[in-house]
Design a protein that fits this description.
By secondary structure, the protein is of the alpha+beta class. The protein has helices at residues 3-15, 106-115, 147-153, 158-164, 166-185, 221-235, 241-246, 252-257, 283-289, 303-317; strands at 25-26, 40-43, 46-55, 65-74, 80-84, 90-95, 98-104, 125-129, 135-140, 145-146, 198-200, 207-209, 214-216. It has a seven-stranded mixed beta sheet with strand order 1-2-3-4-5-9-8. A hairpin with a 6-residue loop joins strand 11 and strand 12 (207-209).
């Protein structure tokens, strides 16, 4: 049996595919658009068979494929891995009137992976290099739901959810926010805090952060992004002005009380001042959310400031039973 035949046999063992072409062995990941299902990525003498591209899964849809990120199997162990190749992108995000430059840094992600090695609040992996010196990150696959999909899957009224599910979620978020504080203490940021960048492990319930390659030169970008996580949790999903105005769930009084300043500084179409819609939201929690509106009376400059209010809110209005 030739080497290629042995590789094909191993691919069939790992994947269960009934038929495969003769695999291509990729040692240069520069042109990641050419890497396809069934190819073998060879990194520092270790082989990974490509299953396909990863996708963004926000907003309840399949999302766009991330052509530079691959789902793969480790030839040696059979474990599922995620292979992230070099992709340089830059764009601007907006927080109110401020325009923030965001850019991808594979090097920064590799440094964060090294920093958080063994810390289960974060995805785990390592950096290696292909034969052309490209930075490639090999990430352990985390089974489970994203925070986005988990909240979306809860089929209860908001009030029932608020009393039965939200307290536990708010407590689980403590460790997740503390994890971001840990990065800040070491002069790093997450850079891409989103509802689909928290994976909830099914066995442990652990909230785990993924995807660290985005970067900004603004220290409080993560802090403002945490506001989006809290807004999604408290609102039981994305709550937009348009959705509320069309809904029969809310009274005319509640609808008429809304003003543009109740919107999120990140996403003006999303309502951050949720207490106007759900009056049972306590003042302490509402005050935290209102730090992230378009024209807040006060802002959080650090996660430490946010967590001081957060702990007081939990003790006062969501005490452990």
């Amino acid at each position: 049996m030739t080497d290629l035949e042995r590789l094909k046999q191993r691919i069939i063992e790992l994947t269960g595919w009934r038929y495969i072409d003769t695999p291509s062995i990729v040692v240069d990941t520069s042109d990641w658009m050419r890497i396809v299902r069934g190819d073998i990525i060879r990194l520092d003498g270790r082989d990974f068979v490509v299953r396909g591209n990863k996708h963004e899964t926000r907003f309840g849809i399949g999302g766009q494929p991330k052509y530079w990120v691959f789902s793969a199997y480790d030839f040696e162990t059979g474990e599922q891995k995620i292979i992230k190749t070099v992709f340089h992108e830059d764009f601007f995000a907006h927080i109110g009137i401020f325009k923030i430059h965001c850019y991808r840094s594979p090097e920064k992600e590799g440094e964060v992976l090294e920093l958080v090695k063994g810390d289960r609040r974060f995805m785990q992996g390592y950096t290696t290099y292909d034969e052309k010196g490209n930075n490639v990150r090999v990430i352990d696959f985390i089974p489970g739901q994203t925070f986005f999909n988990y909240i979306h899957s809860i089929s209860k009224s908001h009030e029932q959810y608020f009393h039965e599910d939200l307290p536990r979620i708010l407590y689980n978020l403590v460790a997740a926010i503390d994890a971001i504080s840990f990065l800040h203490e070491h002069k790093y940021c997450h850079g891409d805090i989103r509802n689909d960048h928290i994976i909830i492990e099914p066995e442990t319930g652990q909230y785990r952060w993924i995807d660290f390659d985005l970067k900004q030169n603004v220290s409080d970008f993560d802090t403002w992004s945490i506001g989006n996580i809290l807004n999604y949790a408290v609102g039981k999903g994305i709550t937009s002005f348009q959705q509320v105005m069309r809904s029969k769930e809310f009274t005319d009084e509640a609808k008429n009380s809304l003003v543009p300043e109740d919107g999120s500084a990140f996403y003006e179409y999303r309502i951050m001042n949720l207490q106007k819609l759900y009056p049972y939201i306590p003042d302490s929690l509402s005050a935290i959310l209102n730090h992230f509106t378009i024209r807040p009376r006060k802002v959080y400059y650090t996660l430490s400031d946010l967590m001081d209010d957060y702990y007081r809110m939990l003790d006062q209005d969501f005490p452990l039973r």
